[in-house]
Design a protein that fits this description.
The complex is a heterodimer of chains A (118) and B (153). The longest helix of chain A has 38 residues. Chain A is built from five helices and two strands, in the order ααααββα. Chain A has one domain: Winged helix-like DNA-binding domain superfamily/Winged helix DNA-binding domain (Arc Repressor Mutant, subunit A), CATH 1.10.10. A two-stranded antiparallel ribbon of chain A has the order 1-2. By secondary structure, chain B is of the alpha+beta class. Chain B has four helices and eight strands. Classes of the chains: A mainly alpha (118), B alpha+beta (153). The interface between A and B is large, with 44 and 51 residues.
Chain lengths: 118, 153
């Protein structure tokens, strides 16, 4: 079924909004290679730690990353569950359209057959 | 023919294309007339009964379909509003309640050999999933998605 619950929808909106920014996508790509601290993340982007922290907050709120509460350096880690869900959402939509067009094709063939009979 | 666009804009968009052996007019009617929609609108595992389809074919008019699950009879109603209605070229609607506003545009392209390409755009989908380079970086979590895309392209 194609049920999209409100809660899930809100969560996806946050994920999609977080992913709309190229810097945040780059941060996620970096984290896909392994955990990193704010310092390590700021380096390749030529950005202040403050600017990176802002992006990290958005990613954390979307629960795309998690940050250690124990270590002093608070390393960031990719949290793949939300990405999985968002990717699944897109895959479902693609499938809905594919199914729909498969059926439309059958419907058109039925219309043609009917016309030929007439 | 099916495809997913690459390197879409910042907001991202998802494109689905299929070629049918029919005129633009017939395909436009299929997408906008309840008696046609009832035959194909509900995706696999569901049906969209005629009495659950509302089409007010004008900008600002409603486009609603109730899909019923074959398995357990549960229903889901898509509630959309037409933005543009231009037979036989273009059809556009938005679903205000989905993802902060999901916009769907269907373009009907005459291939001049009796066939028509039907191109569906859905926006409010992040570019991150559609850009091959970005996708490669997400390999741990997007493996399943990529596998799915591969079956489409």
């Amino acid at each position: 079924m194609v049920v999209v619950e409100d809660e899930l929808s809100d969560e996806l909106s946050r994920v999609f909004a977080a992913l709309a920014d190229p810097t945040r996508r780059a941060i996620l790509e970096r984290l896909a290679e392994g955990d990193a601290t704010v310092n390590e993340l700021a380096e390749p982007f030529a950005m202040s730690q403050q600017a990176v922290s802002k992006h990290l907050k958005v990613l954390e709120r979307a629960r795309l990353i998690s940050r250690s509460r124990t270590a002093q350096s608070r390393p960031c880690a990719l949290d793949p569950e939300r990405l999985d869900r968002a990717a699944g959402w897109i895959a479902r939509h693609q499938k809905i359209w594919a199914d729909r067009h498969d059926r439309l094709e059958q419907h058109l063939a039925a219309l043609r057959a009917k016309r030929n009979d007439a | 023919m099916t495809g997913v666009s690459d390197g879409a804009g910042e907001t991202g968009e998802l494109t689905f294309s299929r070629i049918h052996e029919a005129s633009r007019e017939l395909l436009f009617d299929c997408m906008t007339m309840p008696e046609h929609l009832a035959h194909f609108w509900g995706p696999a595992g569901t049906t969209a009964p005629l009495d659950g389809i509302v089409v007010e074919l004008r900008p600002g008019g409603r486009f609603e379909t109730t899909m019923v699950s074959d398995a357990d009879g549960s229903t889901y109603t898509m509630r959309a509003v037409y933005v543009e209605v231009r037979r036989p070229d273009r059809l556009e609607w938005i679903e205000p309640g989905v993802e902060g506003g999901m916009r769907t545009t269907i373009t009907f392209v005459d291939l001049r050999d009796g066939r028509t390409e039907v191109i569906t755009h859905q926006t409010n989908v992040p570019a991150a999933y559609l850009n091959a380079e970005a996708r490669a970086g997400f390999n741990t979590s997007l493996d399943r998605f990529d596998a799915y895309l591969a079956t489409l392209i």
